[in-house]
Design a protein that fits this description.
Number of domains: 2
Shape: globular
Helix content: 25-40%
Number of helices: 11
Distance between the termini: 62 Å
Number of strands: 27
Structural class: alpha/beta
CATH superfamily of the largest domain: Glycosidases
CATH topology of the largest domain: TIM Barrel
Largest sheet: 8 strands, parallel, barrel
CATH class of the largest domain: Alpha Beta
Strand content: 25-35%
Radius of gyration: 24 Å
Oligomer: single chain
Mean pLDDT: 94
Low-confidence stretches: 1-24
């Protein structure tokens, strides 16, 4: 009897061990990478950033002033500048956001001690010193090697104010406004790469109808004039999420007057703007629901692009997703208007899966700006006084650096679904590109927080000789970096890929982002 009981217990233990075996729990995914069917170029600007006068995004996050005890160069914090330069940030959008349509540029030039102090009525009701203005932003962009995207004020500004700002920025003449720039310390004009004609004009930018904004866009855009021989792309304030009527109206009425149309979409884990959910305290259902919300980006880009195709079949006009990311409830104890939130492995997976979507639509999506760069929403960087940490989302952008300027390559993925409750998404997503040196980069994202995946990739049109890469994963769904433990989530060398002939086999851990280099 005792012997039989022991055998039964051993048998049960063996069965439990087998059920827990990663090999048996793995998801099997088949994919084909078609290197012989090159697609459009993945514009570096797809990896753009967003810096708004919001919370601690500008002040403390980027700018501390020359007299600060925090190490700085001309007022810009050295640690943040170094981290952004390492990321090869291609573009920064400024000064908003909702802040832009209440911003008057003349208040942010000249001696800082003479600039007017105002109230940031949009974000937190705090004092805005205007210490960070046009010169500070343009010099910051030069410091980190980024292109400039300035958002103009259509909300309570005028065409004249906007025209004079563009002249101040770009004119090489001896006009009164150009000489004012020189008086304020900048002799040569700056390169103004992109100029946004307003922001979210259907909401905080003026509560306008599509028809009204279309007329205003044409009016304001006509006065955005730059010197002969230079180019500044004009961006129309596009829809929020699935407002397809806005896109239809604007493209029909002003498509030929614009270089790009913006699109804004935020992932709200709960789907409820009133209670979005904690950035760090969540269960698996919240993870799954978040992944569903994130995958909506593909549908939004597809449907808005289809409308744009009706009026712009040559795809001259870009679709710029210049605000996107996860929006959680603010961290407990912080100012609700500062939008400060932590950043976990969940955020990283969403960022990577979204970048894969942008690669898929590289022909139309030629610029994006994640919200936001420092200390706000899905930030790259968090600071606390003189301390700084890099978030899991930062490390996704670090992994994906090789895709900046690469030629997109089709990747066909046949993946089982990751399903929980009513939520269901592909377990694995992917994208690929070939850089100027001929190296093929393959990004794989496992959206399943529990199961590893064995991904078998058939290589078409290329024979790989070697594969190497890096991976970002973490012990739990909510793993994140803190000022006390800043390296909980950080990339490591990836050893889970093997190459044999025209077949690449990748064993991808759960909740992971990997970028492989095929040589």
């Amino acid at each position: 009897m005792l012997k039989a009981l022991k055998l039964a217990l051993l048998s049960g233990l063996a069965a439990t061990l087998l059920m827990a075996s990663p090999a048996l729990a793995q998801t099997s995914v088949a994919a084909t990478l078609r290197a012989d069917q090159p697609g459009p170029r993945i514009a570096p600007e797809v990896y753009g950033q967003f810096a708004e006068h919001l919370g601690r995004g500008i002040y403390e996050g980027i700018w501390v002033g020359e007299d600060s005890k925090i190490p700085n160069t001309r007022g810009y914090r050295n640690d943040v500048v170094a981290a952004l330069k390492a990321l090869h940030v291609p573009l920064v959008r400024w000064p908003g956001g909702c802040f832009a349509d209440d911003y008057h540029w003349r208040e942010g030039i000249g001696p800082r001690d003479k600039r007017p102090v105002k109230v940031n009525v949009t974000w937190g009701g705090v004092e805005e010193t205007n210490a960070f203005g046009t010169h500070e932003f343009m010099d910051f962009a030069e410091l980190i090697g980024a292109k400039t995207y300035v958002a103009g004020n259509v909300g309570n500004g005028s065409p004249q104010e906007m025209a004079e700002w563009v002249e101040y920025l770009t004119s090489p003449t001896n006009s009164t406004i150009a000489n004012l720039r020189r008086t304020n310390g900048r002799k040569e004009p700056w390169k103004l790469d992109y100029f946004g004609i307003g922001n979210e004009n259907w909401g905080c930018g003026g509560e306008m109808t599509a028809e009204h904004y279309t007329n205003l866009y044409r009016n304001f855009a006509a006065f955005v004039r730059v010197p002969a021989g230079t180019k500044t792309s004009k961006i129309a304030g596009g829809p929020g999420a699935d407002d397809y009527k806005w896109t239809e109206t604007l493209m029909a009425g002003a498509g030929r007057h614009m270089d790009a149309l913006s699109l804004h979409y935020y992932v709200i884990p709960t789907g409820d703007w009133g209670k979005k959910g904690s950035a760090t305290q969540f269960d698996e259902q919240a993870w799954a629901d978040t992944m569903v919300q994130a995958q909506r980006m593909d549908e939004l880009v597809t449907r808005h692009s289809a409308i744009m195709d009706k009026y712009d079949p040559e795809k001259r006009v870009g679709l710029y997703v210049d605000e996107w990311g996860i929006w959680h409830d603010v961290e407990p104890g912080t100012n609700g208007g500062f939008l400060y939130q932590q950043n976990t492995m969940r955020d990283a997976v969403v960022a990577a899966a979204t970048l894969n979507i942008f690669h898929k639509h590289a022909e139309r999506v030629r610029l994006t700006a994640i919200a936001q760069m420092v200390n706000v929403l899905q930030a790259m960087i968090l600071t606390d006084g003189d301390k700084m940490i890099l978030t899991p989302t930062y490390w996704v952008y670090d992994l994906y650096r090789p895709f900046q300027g690469a030629t997109a390559l089709p990747v066909e993925v046949s993946s089982p679904a990751y399903t929980l409750g009513k939520a269901s998404v592909p377990a694995v997503t992917a994208s690929a590109g070939r850089d100027a040196a001929g190296i093929i980069h393959l990004a794989l994202v496992n959206l399943d927080p529990n199961k590893p995946a064995t991904v078998t990739v058939k290589l078409s049109g290329v024979t790989g000789k070697a594969v190497e890469g890096r991976i970002l994963t973490a012990p739990t769904m909510a793993s994140h970096n803190t000022f006390a433990a800043p390296e909980v989530v950080k990339p490591t060398a990836f050893k889970g890929a093997t190459l044999k002939g025209d077949t690449l086999t990748v064993v991808l851990p759960s909740r992971a982002v990997a970028v492989l280099d095929l040589r």
